[in-house]
């Protein structure tokens, strides 16, 4: 049985006499589900190199270690694909995702996904990991994508997301002129009963909060920085449409006044997807316990459109 590198905690003097389970859950922040899993393996939980039950009392200076078994994504076909790696360590792989590529294989779409490329990358590097993205990006959305290498890392970042501690920032090119340079959209979102794949603002929907700041205002459009408190499906696209500022290139959530404007045809010829880019992702790194930010530069299609918008002002 092979394990990932252990997570280590040295018991300080003030915690002498604590129950091992308390150390695991309150200091190493191991979830109940993960704790149930690792305590069944031979080297899952050790104190000073010896396997222990979680109800023992620890002493000052004890070296507590937890280990997880290595895993593979056996159902994902390895495929050599270009990956734009922003950062990689034993805990995480951070990518700059291109627009147009799906993150995970789906029914009828088993290759040409981020997962296929990552599994191949790890295979070539001799790394044994299961593909675990910690969040999602739509096929057309570009930007920072974080992939956990162990179930512990996935659990840690997922918990931060539940507690709204993960900072996700986006850049979007949207239609129209803003009256206010900053603002917040606090409107519930749910499925459109007539088109289940489409989301709408509705009083009976789920809580959704989006903040925005206009970075550049052009003649007919704006570059907007957006950050989220919640993570509803299509949240940014729905909320910006609700404001009257749909994303350029977004055919699902466009507005008639944009489609009818003579300028829209020029935009359609220059942009072939929604103008949304996840440019920054920040969270407490599960390995270092320090706050980390990862940024992906604006891709060429959006950068070129931005320059064109500046020149046509």
From TrEMBL:
Enzyme class: isomerase
Domain Pseudouridine synthase RsuA/RluA-like, first and last residues per copy: 91-242
Pfam families: PseudoU_synth_2 (PF00849)
Coiled coil spans: none
Catalytic function, reaction form: a uridine in RNA = a pseudouridine in RNA
Annotated function: Responsible for synthesis of pseudouridine from uracil.
Protein's name in the database: Pseudouridine synthase
């Amino acid at each position: 049985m092979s394990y990932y590198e252990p997570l280590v905690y040295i018991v300080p003097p003030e915690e002498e006499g604590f129950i091992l389970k308390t150390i695991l859950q309150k200091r190493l922040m191991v979830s109940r589900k993960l704790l149930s899993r690792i305590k069944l393996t031979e080297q899952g939980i050790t104190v000073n190199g010896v396997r222990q039950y979680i109800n023992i009392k620890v002493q000052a200076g004890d070296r507590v270690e937890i280990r997880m078994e290595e895993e593979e994504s056996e159902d994902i076909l390895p495929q050599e694909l270009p990956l734009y790696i922003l950062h990689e360590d034993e805990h995480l792989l951070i990518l700059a995702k291109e627009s147009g590529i799906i993150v995970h294989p789906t029914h009828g779409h088993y290759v040409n996904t981020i997962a296929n490329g990552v599994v191949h990358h790890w295979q070539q590097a001799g790394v044994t990991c299961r593909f675990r993205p910690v969040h999602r990006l739509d096929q057309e959305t570009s930007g920072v994508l974080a992939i956990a290498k162990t179930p512990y890392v996935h659990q840690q970042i997922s918990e931060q997301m539940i507690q709204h501690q993960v900072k996700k920032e986006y850049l979007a090119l949207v239609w129209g002129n803003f009256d206010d340079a900053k603002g917040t959209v606090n409107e519930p979102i749910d499925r459109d009963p007539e088109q289940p794949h489409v989301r709408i603002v509705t009083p009976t929907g789920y809580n959704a909060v989006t903040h925005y700041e206009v970075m550049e205002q052009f003649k007919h459009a704006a570059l907007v920085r957006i950050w989220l408190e919640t993570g509803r499906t299509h949240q940014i696209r729905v909320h910006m449409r609700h404001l009257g500022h749909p994303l350029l290139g977004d055919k699902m959530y466009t507005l008639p006044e944009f489609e009818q404007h003579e300028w829209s045809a020029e935009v359609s010829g220059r942009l072939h997807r929604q103008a949304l880019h996840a440019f920054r992702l920040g969270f407490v790194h599960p390995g270092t316990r320090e706050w980390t930010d990862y940024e992906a530069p604006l891709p060429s299609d959006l950068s070129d459109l931005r320059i064109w918008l500046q020149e046509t002002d």
